[in-house]
Design brief:
Layout lengths: L5 H7 L7 E2 H10 L4 H8 L5 E2 L2 H10 L1
Antiparallel strand pairs: 1-2
Helix pairs in contact: 1-4, 2-3
Length: about 60
């Protein structure tokens, strides 16, 4: 399974209040109707606090 596109992932994180945790990102994406591949990829991010969309995208691209 290929990784979802980071741009697609950011679409589901629109409106997130940063800084936020990985679990908060997953919850928000889920509430925005993100598909399972995006949610699964978000769940693989390191469990830490993210200070903005660039930090999320950087980790998202590594996994």
């Amino acid at each position: 399974m290929s990784a979802p596109n980071p741009i697609q992932m950011q679409k589901f994180l629109s409106g997130v209040d940063y800084p936020c945790t990985r679990d908060a990102l997953v919850d928000h994406a889920q509430s925005q109707g993100a598909p399972d591949d995006v949610l699964d990829h978000l769940r693989q991010l390191p469990d830490r606090e993210y200070d903005g969309p660039n930090a999320v995208s950087a980790e998202f691209s590594k996994t």
